[in-house]
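Issue 218. Parser rejects a valid record. Input:
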Amino acid sequence: MSYLVVGLGNIGEEYADTRHNIGFMVLDAWAQASNIVFRSERYGAVCETRFRGQKIILLKPSTYMNLSGKAVNYWLQKEKVPIENLLVIVDDIALPLGTLRMRKQGSDGGHNGLKDIAGTLLTNSYSRLRFGIGDGFSRGSQINYVLGSWSEEERKQLPSLLEKAVEASKSFVAIGAERTMNIYNTK
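Output the parser choked on:
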């Protein structure tokens, strides 16, 4: 059985170190820990790994955040991955830094990447791992915050937070969304 784990972000150096690219950062941490390398493929950077006997395709879409659905749909079809084996990793300003929330389905919560995926797949019934990036911005400056670089304090915390998100993603593959939610959706 195959799994598709998608980390959302934007391509390009100007976005590389931004909060909005936390999905890319989680997959980069996973790849580095597994000694695997992404390669450029259609609609994204892709690599393959295995965990507990399961084939996992890691995807960082090259379609930009707001058009992520095209890449997700293409790789689901190409690899014949059932939608229940899809996990999308995304930033969330409604959660404190590093807080993880897995859901088996749900709304896009105002996130344009999730909105495009749901619109392309014609369903909100796919798992997502929301990674809290905090809400340290004043009214009207949300875009600058999300597309802004990490503070030095945040940067110090990132390695352990990324490791936790990789563990949660592997747990999704090993024991499913429901049981993973019981473990990682804590205060």
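Fixed in the parser; the record now loads. The mean pLDDT is 93.
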